[in-house]
Amino acid sequence: QVQLVESGGGLVQPGGSLRLSCAASGRLVSISTMGWYRQAPGKQREFVAQILSGGFTNYAGSVRGRFTMSRDNAKNMVYLQMNLLKPEDTAVYYCAMNSYWGQGTQVTVSS
Hints:
By secondary structure, this protein is mostly beta strands. The chain is 0% helix and 51% strand. A hairpin with a 4-residue loop joins β7 (67-72) and β8 (77-82).
């Protein structure tokens, strides 16, 4: 059984930064690809970033250059550093591994 718990969301002004964390528990976490997704009100859930077990990362075009995903395999943690946040980044952000999802954390970018 895999459990994913996100934290770090909140309210931030445009141009600000937030760091999301995802605590993962369960088998094979350290060798699995981990992902961040987001869902804005009235929109479908969309891919944000992913990181392979060896650290290779891939980003959606809308966040590339502003967001950085990292992982600490020893702690079974993944992170999403979000800089230069825009109002359109407002969404519930979800951590994912294979078919497992966390409960999400709200990010609101507003002045």
